[in-house]
């Protein structure tokens, strides 16, 4: 634990001006980023009596080893710089309001020749338009099922689409008129795209225009005595109205706003956001975050709006077809101290004026109270679920320190696991836990060659050697850091290098021999500040290097539970990589009998058709459409695979 007084700047050296500051730990890793109207006043507050600081603030200043700052001219610049640094350095004590990937959205793949709407979870991609988020995936499927009778766009996967194109027969949705069946040419690519565009317009809020157009077409069909078409249009209008009813009208004036509310205590805060577009609630999101400093609702609003809309603006830049993520109005429970600067920054993101205000009366006030109740309910549920979580994690780290005889609690734990089948496709995984929580961005995987045939002990040694040799290199210990270069920091980007930070505890999957092999490699490299332990699966025994007997942790201990979680996560990650490698090798090997076919073209064929089975079913013309495959090569492939199929039969 560092003493903040050892790195406290002299009060006169800190400028009394707006700016952004960074706290770094002993390894020069940025652990916290903040902004202030007065850098002098804000930074001096961190070096007060430790007993009077917020618990997370106290942990942050004792973890840090230095502080630096950058002066800016305006508060808007400070907002932007703070957001950029948080995104760039991902400090462990800063909150990141990332989208929870468990939120499902309705995605429309506009980049494809025949776009398709489908339920999607995950990061945003270019050329895809997103609608939502929705609370449940079934809500998307229910809405999609209603709208397909009006907008019969294809919803099948690319593999299913190709298969029905080959057999010349549509799927069930094509027969019941919930798909326009572009796979068999019932509509052209241009006609299908118009269907998808109308679908997107409806979901984007142009509902009344769409309904009026269909009502006009229904009246015209009735006048022309086309009663079947009129009845079909009547049913389409009914389907649209049922879909519209699922999104309750909460504001009758067509309001375009986000409504934000908070519930919080000394250590944590819950935030809820309702997205209102065209007067209807189009989506809802919620987060629960740890508070790093003592802050009220106004400070929470400031922090949330900066992080959330900065992130959303970057996602929207990847999908230019999406509407602006910043609405015309943001309704909050309290205005932050820098409301004017925040409003100006939000307006720049949107490209037009944004209103930031507290609703005082009427429907907007009533909706804000509803969002507040949602935030309080979410916070209460979170407290019930995680009442013992922080205590359990702290207890687990303290128990590990005690049972393994460590100098301090192992705040950073790394685990290595090996995966293979009888010595083939040998791979390894390296997973990272910090404060008892997975840090997936720092997971690594290794393809092993040197120790592939020598057993798990040699494989463990190879992984540890590669990981810590890279650590020494990136910290400048191997060859000496360049003049002015900070160890562990990439001088070009200013970000931490991938292997720059060592763990406090290295766990290997195995017993004494595996733990001893890992410790021997560390000793060979001159690394003395990393503890090593092995966790054997059979009896869940903990082995320390060169010890004849294992350490037996109580079956009910939090320390053993944490080690099991770390080991199981490493095992899962290793198996996933092993299956990927094995699948590629097995599929490519089926094409080994084709003369003149290299690995690159094998990979292109498998990627295009999805499997060797589908490739065998394809004709010469279809095979020749694969990039890099000419007509003559396609004939050779078709003949060879057809001959293999006959032989199999």
TrEMBL record:
Q: Where does this polypeptide localize?
A: Cytoplasm
Q: Which residues form the UvrC family homology region profile domain?
A: 259-522
Has the keyword DNA repair been applied to this entry? yes
Residue span, GIY-YIG domain: 16-95
**Domain of life assignment:** Bacteria
Which Pfam families does this chain map to? GIY-YIG, HHH_5, UVR, UvrC_RNaseH, UvrC_RNaseH_dom
Q: Name one GO molecular function term.
A: hydrolase activity
Q: What does this protein do?
A: The UvrABC repair system catalyzes the recognition and processing of DNA lesions. UvrC both incises the 5' and 3' sides of the lesion. The N-terminal half is responsible for the 3' incision and the C-terminal half is responsible for the 5' incision.
What is known about its subunit structure? Interacts with UvrB in an incision complex.
- Read off the PANTHER family from this record: UVRABC SYSTEM PROTEIN C, UVRC/OXIDOREDUCTASE
Q: What name is this protein filed under?
A: UvrABC system protein C
Organism of origin is: Amycolatopsis pigmentata
The record's gene field reads uvrC
